[in-house]
Structures are given as C-alpha cells and as structure tokens.
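Look over both lines:
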Amino acid sequence: MSSHTQKPPVLTIDGPAGSGKGTISQRVATTLGWHILDSGALYRLVALAVLKKAIPLNKDSSEYEIYNIALKLDVLFVPLENNSVRIVLEGEDVTQAIRTEECGNIASQVATLKSVRTALLERQRGFLKLPGLVADGRDMGTVVFPDAKLKIFLTASAEIRGKRRLNQLKQQGINANLRGLIRDIEERDTRDMQRKDAPLVPADDAMIIDTDNLSIDDVVNLVLNAQKNS
C-alpha cells in the first residue's frame, strides 16, 4: 500500500476524569512520535465560551447557540518543546483557563448535548494523520474511532482521583477541599455514564487498566507493550 493511501494507526485512551488519561496519552504519544488528540479540551473550550458569553445551560433555547459555538470553534493547538500544548481560542491563550473545576463541570454538562457531540465529531477525526494518533477522551474507542486496533480504558476510584486532582491544584497554588472534589467527580461520572448519547463506557474490545495502585510509568509501559503487540 502506498504511503498516500495508508490509513494512520490510532490508539484510543478513554476513562473518567482524573484516571490519568491525559498524562498517559501525552507520554505515550511522545514516545511513539505520534500526534495527540485531547478531546476533553474541545469540550472545555466550548464550556469556556459558554461561560464567557453567560449562556444559561438550563434553557432549551441555549442548545442551538452552544451548537454553533462548537461548530465554529476557532481553536489552535500549539505543540511546545516540553511535550505540552498551548491552546489558543480566538487568539487568546486559554491553556490554564480551560482547566478550572468550573470549566470542567460545564464541559461535562455541554457534552450531554447530542448536537454539540455531532458538531465536534468530524473535527476530532480530522486529527488522525500519519504517523499515528493517540486519542484521549471518553468515547474515543466507542464512537470517534471505533475501528481503532488498540483501545485502552483507564479506571480509578473516585477517592484516588480526588487526591490526584487535589495535588494538581496545590501545585498550581489553588486551595481545594478533597471531599468537594470527590463529590464533583462522582457527579461528573454519573452525568458521563448516564447521558443518552455516547455514554462513558469501555469499548467491548478495550483493554481495561485500573490505575489505583500503578505509577504513571507503570501504566505507560503497559500501554506501550500492548501497542507493540497489537
């Protein structure tokens, strides 16, 4: 098969908030030399726009407005030398702004809207380019790239995920309450798993990894070995 017709390989890494999929995906993509899709960032970008425009989420009339935001999202992902990515929305660096707890909670609500998911679907698939793609999200293996040869689903208890998030916030100089973080995580899990469209569930053929008692290096090695043998 010639290179111009070769379909790039894709590795999907799904899981709930705080399961480590972002960190793991970045490390795996860097090691493989592949592109990366942070699908959660796209939903957080829509959420940030919703916050900036003060669009109420509890009104049916808001869905079309939010759909249009998702459809016309003016976003740029700029790779940096330290293996991280700068995210620019409408010319503004929003890399940190989209990582707040408020933005994450709004993103979880926005993600329940079928029209928004439809608007972002082809944009996500457009990230698939040679030499390959590591796709990080909640429905990468079930909806966005169902034909992926290797699908990973990361899990971790709400308590462990809450502690990880607390440590991240402390490193950023942000005070937070562990109990509140765990409650927010459990609420987001419920929304993600019970939404009608593209619920958070492992693909039938996914490799499930419980990260509770594993280090980042442990999980990265498991994923890389699975990729090598797939």
Remarks:
- The chain has a mean pLDDT of 90.
- Residues 10-229 form a domain with the Rossmann fold fold (CATH 3.40.50.300).
- Residues 178-194 form the longest helix (17 residues).
